[in-house]
Every structure is written in structure tokens, then in C-alpha cells.
Amino acid sequence: MTIADIKKTAETKMDQSITAFKNNLQKIRTGRANPALLDTVQVEYYGSMVPLSQVANVALIDSRTISVQPWEKGMGAKIEKAIRESDLGLNPASMGDLIRVPMPPMSEERRKEMTKLARNEGESAKIAVRNLRRDANESVKKLVKDKLASEDDQKRAEAEVQKFTDRHIAEIDVLVAGKEQEIMAV
């Protein structure tokens, strides 16, 4: 493995960490309805647990209501039960074939809890990025030790990996700040 490969791998993995972090941020509840909120809900379907999106169509009715349209007639009650038993604090209401999931307004205390959760997710993402930096630097040091690269190459590679790290951490900070603003907006 060359220094260029190490740098490319580190940057790719850092990008993947950012993508995973964005997905985690989507699951944090704000005052608004978001279909991605129900991605974690599992429904029992013919004896096995499957994601809600595989047994129903999930969409927005308005900014505070999610609609869930089961693809099979008998699934409505099971979907309703799965949403109610999830740890999201939602109370679905059945209207014939359609299940409406109204988003309860969030209290100030709950909003602060959600911002803390967003910050914790951000910190976890930063730790993941820093670990990738450490791994890349260790790989470069090993190349120098094995005499496959010079110490000057090592210094340049470490400086570039640090630039990737700084850029990704700044992006995480921006995403956290944006999510906090979204949560605190009434």
C-alpha cells in the first residue's frame, strides 16, 4: 500500500462517517414530521421482523403529520402497534386503510434533550474521524519503518491527512449547528 492509497482510503472512510452521521441526525426528532423518523420501526410480517418501509408507504400529509399506507389489508393493526411500542413517543391513529401519525409538539425541555443528543452524535462522528486519522498516520509510519517511504513523505502525508480531518470535523460542526437550530425552532 502506498501513501497515496492510505490518504485516499482515509478520506473515503471519513466521507462515509459523515454520511452515517447525516443519517443518524435525520432520526433525531424535531418539531416537524419527517418520514425518516419511522425508518427504525420494525413490524412483524409473517413471523419475521421487517422495516416499516417494506410493508407500507410512508409519506407526509403536512408538516406535523406522517401518513402510513399499508400494502396489505391486515397489516394496519400490526403497524399501529409497532409505531406505538417504538421508543419514539408517537401515538398513531387509524382512519380506515390509512394510519395517521401526528407529531406531538415538543416541550422546551425535550428540545434541549434533543440538542444534547445531536451534540453527542456529532462528538461520536468526530471521534470516528479522528480514529481514521490515527489509523492513516500509523499506516504511514509503518511504511517509513519498513523503508518504503521517507520521513519527508511521512510529514507531508500526515499534514494532508490532518487537512482532511480538519475539513470533516468542521463539516460535522456545521451539521450539528444546523440540527440544533432546526430543533429549537418553534
From TrEMBL:
Gene3D superfamilies: 3.30.1360.40, Ribosome-recycling factor. Residues 21-184 form the Ribosome recycling factor domain. GO terms for molecular function: ribosomal large subunit binding. The keyword Cell division does not apply. The keyword Cytoplasm applies. GO terms for biological process: cytoplasmic translational termination. Keywords: Cytoplasm, Protein biosynthesis. GO terms for cellular component: cytosol. InterPro entries: Ribosome_recyc_fac, Ribosome_recyc_fac_dom, RRF_sf. It is found in: Cytoplasm. Belongs to the RRF family. Responsible for the release of ribosomes from messenger RNA at the termination of protein biosynthesis. May increase the efficiency of translation by recycling ribosomes from one round of translation to another. This is Ribosome-recycling factor. The lineage of its organism: Bacteria, Pseudomonadati, Pseudomonadota, Betaproteobacteria, Burkholderiales. The gene is frr.
